[in-house]
Amino acid sequence: MQHQPPVTSYNLHSHIKIIMSSKSPPPQSCDTFVVLGDRTKGGHIVFGKNSDRPQDEVQEVVYQPNANHAQGSKVKCTYIEIDQVETTHAVILSKPSWMWGAEMGANDRGVCIGNEAVWTKLQGDDDATERLLGMDLLRLGLERGSTAESALDIITSLLEQHGQGGPCSDTQPGLLYHNSFLIADTKEAWVLETAGRHWVAENIKSGHRNISNTLTITTNMDRSSEGVKEAAREAGWWDGTSEFNFADAFNADDNSDGGRQQCGQQLLAKLSQGGEFSLTEMFEYYETLSRVFVATTDHQHPTAASMVSVLSSDGDGNGDGNGRPSCHWFTATPDPKRSVFKPFIFTHNVKISPHTQRSKDTRRSGPGQDGATVRQEGEPLPPAVPTTAGGGRL
């Protein structure tokens, strides 16, 4: 086999410049990715996300323990109330402080989910109607799903039942979008992309995959909602005879965010080409992308928080078994190139630092749950301080 030269931050940065040189200026958007066990050191799955959000918003890291719920009880999401389930898993979430849902997170079963805003041809005035946010669907998938596929089933069922909608910011009512998701566990991953209540999903068993703020599933659909093809044909977005391409049919005509997704895809391919991708390459990936894409805190949509998870191939995600537990790293602060990633492992009686959460006495009332709201205009972003007691945790 021909020896591959080592990948360095310098040549990766040069690689970004080459990729982007023929494209328009890079869009401001999030990045979510996964590298499967055949490309990683030790066969573990590595998952991660950068979350870009409005500048006037705090993103906090919160822990919710597993819980049992009374039959017939309800759960209040950001805008609407839905039926609660009997049992919910313990979750660690990185979330805008004003909303109930989350941008990214993990549960004690070894499931991780990150979401992306996408803009589709089905968007319209009706998107302002308060339903479930994509971030609510993400949290519900983590609280109720024991595997990546079961989380997929939960999210798509709730999407079809309740729909998605409502402002995705409490200070920018016009911020409305549909959602895509990357869902991973210790064995596989799923990409789920939506347009209104329609959806398609792609199963990822090997290699790597990433999503940004554009639809990426073309003809390689493993599952889909009933009627998605008919909706595209009736709208004139598919001729009904050629092979159905979901992204071509439903991506908004003015969507220009494919360049960022393609760049991330090529960088993942380069870093994982030797089958030795690890936490080191993961942080290098973030550092390199941040030189071009990550918006600093003075930007209108800065990178508010970042997450990296190593999902152990020989563990169950929560440290109860004999195998290695999965470990989840969060910045709990903006701008990953200036932040420290702080580890969290699900263990019995786990606690996290209160410094990763919005302080109770500075919250103001709003649509978010758990007493959460955004900070006052002009208020600086709060610091995150890790604790050292117990197993690795925030």
UniProtKB/TrEMBL annotation:
GO BP term, pick one: proteolysis
Pfam families, alphabetized: Peptidase_C69
Segments crossing the lipid bilayer: none
Annotated region described as Disordered, given as residue ranges: 351-394
Coiled coil location: none
Alphabetized GO MF terms: cysteine-type exopeptidase activity; dipeptidase activity
Gene3D superfamilies assigned: Penicillin V Acylase, Chain A
InterPro entries per the UniProt record, alphabetical: Peptidase_C69 (IPR005322)
Family: Belongs to the peptidase C69 family. Secernin subfamily.
Protein's name according to its UniProt entry: Secernin-2
Organism: Petrolisthes manimaculis
